[in-house]
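Re: Re: token formats

Sure, here are both.
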Amino acid sequence: MTRRIPIVATIVVIAAAATMVALGFWQLGRLEEKEALLATFARNAADTEARDLAQVEPSQAAYRRVRYDCSSPQNWTAVAGRNANGQSGYVHRYECGTFAGSDAGGQLSAALITGEIGWSRAPQQPRFAGGEIVGRLALLGEGYKIVSERGLAGLAPSAQPDPNALPNNHLAYAGQWFFFALTALVIYWLALRRRWQGRN
């Protein structure tokens, strides 16, 4: 008896599997990009010289040690965070200004610069009149934060940003997409076999 294959269902399954495989290869491409980015972050973190923020491009300087004059702090916030010893509590942030630079695409943009001045167990607002902040630069939403190396305004030092804490899960994601594609094909093959056996 001729084993007929349903054309439409087969096309749908193969197209879905091909899409999953394409997503897997896309994740592998993202893996290479992420590894290059992490390597840049590691080089920045190894540079111990404190550079003036006006002399660096923030989009290329994440985790570098920088200095910035937060002369007019505004809009205080306290968010959950850790101190330099890993204890949980609250880190205190002030908006310090904007930095005119370029984004990853080379377009001019104004990024918000936030100063993280320290840590405390309670979320009460500290009295911070402004001043120079020296610490590591890190991404914060669409802008950047500078995490002060020493606690200001009577606060304890916050934990410094660590590029080693950034996840790089793209290889695992790629493996998942390849597995999903293989699983879909195997399930469809088993369904076809069952259909053929039922007709026999």
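Second one below.
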Amino acid sequence: MDPQIKGNVMKYKLVIFDTRLSCFETLLTTDRLIEAPNWHSNDTIFVNSDGLLFEIDLNNPVLLFHNTGELTTLNNDHGISPDGTTLFLSNNDENGNSVIFQKDINTTNCIQITNTNPSWWHGVSPDGQTITYTALRERNFCICTFDLSTRTENVLTNGFNHTDGPDFSADGRWIWFNGERGGEMNLWRIHPDGTKLSQMTSGPTMDWFPHPSPSDDAVLFMSYAPGTKGHPRQKHVELKLLNLRNRKITVIKKFFGGQGSINVPCWDPKGHRFAYVELQS
């Protein structure tokens, strides 16, 4: 959730981390601001830049424009359906409100999903029938789901100062998200029917954008320093993995990044790697 910053002198690195080999690979370095990698099962990674969408072939890592038709003010909340046929896109309207669309991956045909806005897409259920997103409803941030068959919205949360980054677990039983209460941003999870809300991390860092692994044994997330307001870019942050078997948290990498690094699902759907964006001056 953020407009793009232009005229930046930073370099942007698309990096892959292999959790089994514990190794990093820089796939692409560019002067162009790129954000929020999604990993397609055909080994293509999608990123947004300056309101547009680009794809990167892992075997030939260059930025290739992906035509999204009339949607040319995209923000960094986008993703891919489990079967790989549909893109979910969040596009800012003329009033700056984010609206969610779905698009056939091979055409420019787009269908508007959300009629109540702003809404920022963040995740899709394993069966592809339900999306989850953060929204502003009655001046309050909340986590919502939307049934693509019945075209109905369901508000899952209340009582948070801010919520963001909802993502489904691989088995579809949980929606993970970050939520702020009492000045602390922690990870939470909730069932898709709005029951069993549970806090999963506890200070002192400000924890954002949880992404359960395809094997459902770990959750990737990013931490800002204590007291950080919002999720700014160009900050010293930490990539972390929460082991769901023993609840141990491991710091994978300390780096310069933040906004745009892992805003949306970024795991390789086939396994044990994920992609993120790192900044370099």
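The first strand starts at residue 11 and ends at 18. The CA atoms of residues 99 and 248 lie 37 Å apart.
- S.
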